[in-house]
Amino acid sequence: MRRALLVCMLALLPATPALALDPGAPAQCATGPVEKTYGGTVWLVVSCSDGKSLVFVAKEGSKAAPFEFDMMHTGDGYDLTGKGQGDRKATDAAYAELSKINGAQIRALVQETLKTKRK
After folding, report:
1. Does 15 score more than 90 pLDDT?
2. Which residues contact 106 (CB under 8 A, 6 or more apart)?
3. Which site among 23, 85, 95, 101 is 20 to 30 Å from 7 CA-CA?
């Protein structure tokens, strides 16, 4: 019985969100969204529960979709990563622009998402 329970628990591990395994990761990134244009493409921007990190999702129907950039606060700065199958030219252009965003701009985006927070 214990062996069967252990096997079931181990089978569920791959389905566990990475955020749940990393206590330092933001618990939720769903505040907002606000629409912003980066690299000539419209992105939906949401902030995370840490109040410092952002997620940029290519608006459905755009050349960059489906694609997402995660701008996660690392303590010393920000780590910008992307994933998806959007048009490479569109996502590269957005990446080039997003990689130049400074701390003041990030804080302003977080504040803007907080104003549109769903009630």
Report:
1. no
2. 52, 54, 71, 78
3. 23
Phi, psi of 20 (to 5 degrees): -70, -25
Sign of the dihedral defined by the CA atoms of residues 31, 37, 38, 39, in that order = positive
pLDDT above 50 for 8:
no
Distance CA 62, CA 87 (A): 9
- In whole angstroms, how far apart are CA 58 and each of 24, 40, 98, 103, 107? 26, 11, 13, 22, 21
Give the residue-averaged pLDDT of 34-45. Answer: 98
Q: From the centroid of its chain, how far is CA 117? A: 16
Residue 12 has pLDDT above 50, yes or no: no
The answer to whether the pTM exceeds 0.85 is no
**Sequence letter at residue 33:** P
Query: Which tens digit of pLDDT belongs to each residue from 54-63?
Result: 999 999 999 9
How far apart, in whole angstroms, are the C-alpha atoms of residue 102 and residue 54?
Answer: 13
* Domain-wise residue ranges, the chain: 26-115
